[in-house]
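Predict the assembly for these two chains.
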Amino acid sequence: MVRADLVRMANQIAANFRHHPEAQAAAEVADHIRMFWPPLMRRELLDNVHNGGFDPLVVAAAGLLAEATPA
Amino acid sequence: MASLELCVVQDLFLNETAKFAHVFLPGTSFLEKDGTFTNAERRINRVRPVMAPRNGKQEWQVVCELATAMGYPMHYGTSSEIMDEIAMTTPTFAAVSFAKLDALGSVQWPCNEAAPSGTPIMHIDKFVRGKGRFVETPFIPTDERTNRRYPLILTTGRILSQYNVGAQTRRTENVAWHPEDLLEMHPYDAEERGVVEGGWVTLASRSGETELRVHITDRVPQGVVYTTFHHPVTGANVVTTEYSDWATNCPEYKVTAVQVRARVHARRAHESPSVPSDPVHANVAALR
């Protein structure tokens, strides 16, 4: 997947949950990605999330996803 | 689509996707199908054929033979056996069978041990989670913006006499009502650009450009232009962007910043509506 598309889609999700308190927002973003993104996209997110461009909420959500994802 | 290693299309007609297909498998019409149709009311209906498939096989038979040839044997004898497997693996369909559909006419899922005749109304008094969950949905504007270079908003849509890209409806006499996609434009926007009724224009966005004819009307407000996407030759989706909504990834075809320029160069071959350069018809001719 093109990295710019991955960043845009993840940041869009973050924007729509930003009105929640931070911890809840990160959990909501992680929940949405876990439920609706295919495994390959989730893997690409985890592999790329520290390379810049991602909303801090996405970075926090990726941390939650990583905890629940076997390496 | 062009980057796919293998594209297999099964359809009743050679549609736009079929142009990218390495393998095209013939489909069957609703008059030939044998199976069920589940509508948005959750109602499972039997579909019975009135004639044998002209291509010699039901679509499910083609899929079964393909799966078997690829090392995953599927040996269903009839479509009712497939429904039996669906019932066995899907809790909301557990009590569905062709025999029941023949006896009752149709059923609405969930249809299982708790509701053997189906469930006409779901969520009486409460939802599974209780009274429900209210979710705030803040307005998040699109990243697509008009500017001096692209000052108009393009929105695309449908017309009653054609269906989507028209693979089926453009083969009918409905083309008399809608022989081509037109760009609807407000009189003030047209006047500013020297655009005349029926004249050819270039429609350009940050993504691409295409050419089509204009219909001047105050049906659209100033600043907005509108077109349908029923004729592939128009290339309306060349102009629309890659943006989509955050939750379902539905393409944002209703908001594209564009500019419209009156076209000055000579007409191209396909531009007479009476002699359309229609890729669907061209493909059909090539296969005959």
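Residues 14 and 283 of chain B are 7 Å apart (CA to CA). The longest helix of chain B spans residues 59-69.
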